[in-house]
Write a structure and sequence with these properties.
Radius of gyration of chain A: 23 Å
Largest sheet of chain A: 2 strands, antiparallel
Oligomer: heterodimer
Strand content of chain A: 5-15%
Largest interface: A-B, 76 and 73 residues
Number of strands of chain A: 10
Number of domains of chain B: 1
Radius of gyration of chain B: 21 Å
Helix content of chain A: over 70%
Order of helices and strands of chain A: HHHHEEHHHHEEEEEHEHHHHEEHH
Largest sheet of chain B: 2 strands, antiparallel
Chain lengths: 435, 355
């Protein structure tokens, strides 16, 4: 395995692992805070039980997220020292801010998890709210740094040297808003619908206790609105990519030829040698309409760029199709669920509808698969650049040989952790009351 | 002495590193005592460690993130040098950090059989030992100038061997001595803190008092070994034995060491804790003062490695803003859990009202 590929694989694996925990770290605190708030408002003990259950899951997942995030912050230097030498002063600001947000999160999570009997109800709920907010902020800051890699800003290059560094201007880069919005909604949609799906599954299996129904309600109230809003945010992201990273747009659409009124490819397989997309459903003018909101707009194809600046078209295109397909299904299921909830004026209208419960249970893993696909397309779609148009990934990698060894080691470590986390969470879920 | 902005940033990093050592370091030391728990109160010792660490280890751990982030924002060439030459030990340290943190929560939240919890406990304890040892070796590699020299060798076109760049810099006798001293010092710190956590259980308190004294002797011995191995090199370590600030601080650390040992002998545990923290802090600052103004000895200075001024200014501004939020929050966390924490059980798996 070439060293560059090993380094990229290790980074991709570390990010792909961490992102699951980061996403739960954003979504789950929202669920537990809503449950605790409902308990304080209604006095129903079931809500307290829910908040405590979820907080235990959060404790396990947050710890793994914290340590895997630490690994990433070091890996920036271990694998990409030349990237950090170049980018550190420009894009360190969101990382510093993330450090503070993460610190706040860790402090108040300690208070939340261990403070049930030590602080007042109000202080406890407040700690939960701080955890939820600082979790969102952490995610936003990290994604801003990634957005900068896609649309670098806040510096000038003079003879290969970085001058005129403006860290806050670097944060306000073109991709920052659409990418952070998309990721934040994704975190709520994925966590909310996964938890809703788990409880829908329990109800389908005959456990019709209030615990399951209320859990379903709280989870849906977070996941469903986010899933419904996500396609709108996706449109915003697509237009940002069309404007700033035309070669990425061309790759994710598997669009080879520059043309006006470009068609939208749904599915299909990019035949890079023949420069055409096989077996796709083509919607006339669809791409021009979606990317530029104008059916006759010109969309640049991959051919407009030198092939050594193309990303891997097949990976990017397929990942994009998976993300969009799953996101669409999640939005539709969410509309369906909210419609029944609203019409029935009670979560029972959802909990008694077996078809809907089946759909929710099936949708449970979709958010996380969509997130992995989305990250694959945004990261692979930026290649061969680590900083788009400025620094190539191959120039950024460490000179150390034998990088396949740490890649294999960390992969094994994370595989082991993944298995253990699933096992422990199963224990937690199986122990849910009234079963 | 007028400081440049870069030097201010460097001092801030040292303060954060100091906090990491005093808080996060003690959590690793606690893990070492879990590993070495013995005698009739073996389980009580492990419980005490778990309860002391539980609510705060994640917050304590974040100091390390602050150090790393500040380093790559403010001194990117130094971060690149550490990441390149110290790839292997830093990767080992990361594996230790991952295993320590996850095994600790896995143990706390496992409903499985006792043997399963014991296995998590063992992983937690062993990784608590490895992580500070490797981190200490990395510090030793930097202090000795090996990291800086390896970095120069990489770029001067002499095509050095793999081990000359990526192994020997941190596998020197001096670096190993520093690694050992780190483990002993952090174990000492943890045991001293634990004497206070054990307030009200005098047997248990004595267990940790004796452990603290043993660790203090080991730390002193290893410190002398490290000094002897390093001082002749003519580099940073030599400045610890020549007249100057660093030597003064080193002498201060010796006084703090003796004070803490004497206080432990007399069972004056509050004083012992204070002197222990002072000892560890002064060792750290002695190193930093001896190394100043270098960031990667023997050649790279703080000013030469610094990011552009605008980055430093804005980072400092964010730091002040962050500190305004963080310091009261951290104080609150410690007040809730560390003011008389020994009697109350903080094990999250035993919530009241559990079904």
């Amino acid at each position: 395995m070439p060293d560059l590929l090993a380094a990229r694989s290790q980074m991709a694996m570390s990010l792909g692992f961490h992102i699951i925990f980061a996403v739960v770290g954003i979504g789950l605190p929202a669920l537990m805070v809503i449950a605790e708030w409902r308990w304080i408002r209604t006095g129903e003990a079931v809500y307290l039980e829910l908040a405590k259950r979820w907080s235990k899951g959060a404790a396990i997942l947050f710890a793994v997220g914290a340590v895997s995030g630490t690994v990433l912050s070091f890996e920036l230097g271990l694998l990409w020292p030349n990237f950090m030498r170049f980018a550190g002063p420009i894009i360190g600001m969101p990382f510093s801010l993330e450090g503070f947000a993460f610190f706040t999160e860790a402090i108040f999570l300690g208070l939340y998890l261990y403070g049930w009997d030590r602080v007042s109800r109000g202080a406890h709920l407040f700690a939960g709210i701080v955890v939820a907010l600082s979790g969102v902020l952490s995610g936003i800051f990290v994604v801003i740094a990634n957005a900068w890699m896609n649309t670098p800003a806040g510096f000038r290059l003079v003879d290969g040297n970085v001058v005129d560094v403006r860290p806050f201007a670097a944060m306000a880069n073109a991709a920052a808003f659409s990418q952070t919005l998309h990721m934040t909604l994704a975190a709520y949609a994925a966590t909310g619908l996964t938890v809703a799906g788990i409880h829908a599954f329990s109800i389908l299996r005959g456990n019709r206790s209030p615990f399951q129904r209320l859990a379903l309600g709280v989870a849906l109230s977070v996941g469903a609105p986010a899933a419904i809003l996500q396609p709108l945010s996706g449109d915003l992201s697509a237009r940002m990519v069309a404007e700033n990273q035309p070669v990425k747009l061309a790759a994710l659409e598997s669009h080879f030829e520059t043309q006006r009124g470009a068609p939208l490819h749904i599915g299909g397989w990019p035949d890079v040698d023949a420069r055409e997309t096989r077996w796709a459903i083509k919607i006339p003018r669809g791409l021009s309409l979606l990317a530029f909101h104008d059916p006759n707009a010109e969309v640049k194809g991959l051919e407009a760029f030198p092939p050594d600046e193309w990303p891997n078209v097949a990976i990017v295109h397929i990942a994009f199709q998976i993300m969009v397909a799953l996101g669409t299904i999640m939005a539709l299921v969410s509309v369906w669920a909210l419609w029944h909830w609203w019409r029935g004026k009670s979560i029972d209208a959802v909990a008694d509808h077996r078809q809907l419960l089946r759909a929710l249970a099936l949708a449970a893993p979709m958010g996380f698969v969509a997130i992995e696909a989305g990250w694959t397309l945004t990261e692979v779609g930026r290649q061969p650049w680590i900083v788009y148009g400025v620094l190539r990934t191959a120039e950024a990698v460490t000179p150390m040989p034998g990088l396949v060894v740490p890649f294999v080691l960390f992969t094994l470590l994370y595989a082991l952790l993944g298995v253990i986390v699933v096992y422990l969470l199963r224990q937690q879920i199986v122990r849910a009351p009234s079963e | 002495m007028s400081l440049t902005l870069a030097e201010v940033a460097a001092w801030v990093i040292v303060v954060a590193l100091n906090a990491y050592v005093l808080f996060g370091g003690a959590d690793f030391g606690g893990g070492v005592w879990d590993l070495l728990a013995s005698g009739p109160r073996r389980h009580r010792q492990q419980e005490l460690v778990a309860n002391a660490i539980g609510p705060i280890w994640e917050a304590n751990h974040v100091w390390l993130i602050v150090v790393v982030v500040m380093l790559f924002v403010c001194f990117p060439p130094a971060f690149a040098a550490f990441g390149t030459v110290l790839h292997i030990p830093l990767s080992l340290m990361l594996i230790g950090i991952v295993l320590r943190g996850s095994a600790f929560v896995f143990r706390s939240y496992s409903y499985g059989p006792r043997t399963e919890q014991r296995r998590w406990g063992q992983i937690f304890a062993v990784s608590s030992l490895i992580t500070p040892a490797v981190l200490g070796m990395c510090v030793g590699a930097v202090v000795s100038g090996n990291v800086g020299r390896a970095m120069s060798a990489l770029t001067d076109g002499t095509s050095p061997s793999f081990s000359a760049i990526y192994v020997r810099p941190w596998l020197s006798p001096f670096a190993i001595a520093v690694g050992g001293m780190s483990v002993a010092l952090l174990s000492f710190l943890a045991a001293t803190y634990l004497t206070i956590e054990a307030e009200g259980e005098s047997d248990l308190q004595d267990d940790f008092r004796n452990r603290a004294l043993g660790a203090a002797v080991a730390a002193m011995a290893l410190a002398i070994v490290a000094l002897a191995l390093g001082a002749g090199s003519g580099g940073v370590m030599t400045r610890l034995i020549q007249p100057g600030w660093a030597t003064l601080v080193l002498a201060g650390s010796g006084i703090a060491a003796l004070t803490s040992a004497a206080a432990l002998l007399q069972r004056r545990f509050q004083l012992a804790r204070l002197a222990a923290a002072g000892w560890v802090t002064l060792v750290l600052w002695g190193w930093i003062l001896a190394q100043f103004p270098l960031i990667v000895p023997p050649n790279l200075t703080i000013d030469a490695a610094a990011a552009p001024n605008r980055t430093l200014q804005e980072t400092m501004a964010v730091l002040v803003g962050g500190a305004i939020v963080l310091i009261p929050s951290l104080g609150y966390l410690l007040r809730v859990f560390k003011a008389r924490s020994s009697t109350a059980d903080t094990n999250p798996a035993k919530f009241s009202g559990e079904s």
